[in-house]
Amino acid sequence: MLHLAVSLLAFTTEQAADAEPVLSQAIVDAVNQPGSTWKAGLNDRFARATRGEMKSMMHAKTDGVALLPRVVHTAQQLADTPSSFDPRNTTCHGPVLDQGFCGSCWAFGATTAISDRLCLSQGAGAAFVQLAPLDLTTCDHGLFSGENGCQGGQLAGAWNYAKKTGLVEESCYPYLQSEGGPVPTCDPTEQPCLPESKFIKTPKCTVASSCTKHKLASVSGVDAAQLMTELSSNGPVESAFTVYEDFVHYKTGVYKHTTGSQLGGHAIKIIGYGTEDGADYWLVQNSWTTTWGDGGYFKIARGTDECGIESQAIAGSF
Questions:
Q1: Exposed e or buried b per residue across 142-155, where buried means at least 16 C-beta atoms within 10 angstroms of its C-beta
Q2: Which residues are catalytic?
Q3: Are the CB atoms for 131 and 169 separated by under 8 Å?
Q4: For position 71, which CATH number holds?
Q5: Measured between alpha carbons, how far is 146 from 125 in angstroms, rounded to an integer?
Q6: Stretch 126-150: mean pLDDT, rounded?
């Protein structure tokens, strides 16, 4: 009976914590101390979100990533890798997107990386085509591999879906209601704008058979030692990492987990790397609109597998 009482108390305490706002001035103050490599603030994107609602968006899964064939670059290619790389001003770099309040980060990380790689595969002068995150979110029913729409999904399953089935274009299967899709949101400058009950269920798969599919030819895992060369040679990758409460407050600098409890797993697109004030970093594109973080991007410590971000990378080729 004592064990049951302790378990119930812990459950009740967790429920109470999950009902609290995820944004906290105390976390901002704890991060913004002398010597910190990054700055925190109160991002409007999550001004009405609770800790429990943020946890509902953090269901990226990485089972099976380690089982994928590995990317291998030659010793010469590794040696020739530039010390920094930022593709944001190139024609084959897609924009920061908005996943809304749906746990579809696993689909966005995959689709945005694959879109960039599709453009790069077509050579100089190719037009960028945004592929549809809604294709993965609503149509990849990986019952055995773990893809479950707004309730989370497997990174490896997403890339294997893009290889087996292909992804349609965003213009043919839009995600946001403002573009004709099913997921509610608002202009980033108007956030926060959604009602208190904001987390949505997975929409039905309604992609038209007339939509053009783009299929990957191969899918591979990328080890940390190969990652810089892969990014600078072949384009961005999808990865995932453990999100803590302090990360939601990220503004600028090189993120290192400082304070706050764990919220769950989040998938993103790693696009580049560099060094800032002596701190090595990965440059990462998020899917929380341009008003979150540093214009929708963040930097995270490189070389130490910070929050597991170097252990889950996936790439593919056309």
A1: beebbbbbbbbbbb
A2: 105, 266, 286
A3: yes
A4: 3.90.70.10
A5: 37
A6: 89
- Judging by beta carbons within 10 Å of its beta carbon (0-12, 13-18, 19+), is residue 77 exposed, middle or buried? middle
Distance of CA 214 to the CA centre of its chain: 21
Q: Which amino acid is at 229?
A: T
Residue matched to tokens 């019952």:
143
Residue 59's pLDDT band (boundaries 50, 70, 90)?
very high
Question: How far is the C-alpha of 201 from the C-alpha of 204, rounded, in Å?
Answer: 9
Angle between the 105-121 and 155-164 helix axes, to the nearest 10 degrees? 40
Number of domains in the chain: 1
List, in order, residues 6 or more apart from 27 with CB less than 8 Å away: 40, 245, 246, 249, 259, 260
Residue 12 lies in a domain: no
Whether 302 has a pLDDT exceeding 90, the answer reads yes
Q: Is the pLDDT of residue 6 over 70?
A: no
Q: Which two tokens stand for residue 145?
A: 């591999």
- Please indicate, yes or no, if residue 145 is contained in any of the structural domains: yes
pTM: predicted TM-score of the whole model, two decimal places: 0.93
Inter-residue contact 174 to 133 (CB < 8 Å)? no
17 is a domain residue: no
Beta carbons of 281 and 122 less than 8 angstroms apart: no
Alpha carbon distance 94, 312 (integer Å)? 22
Mean pLDDT of 289-309: 97
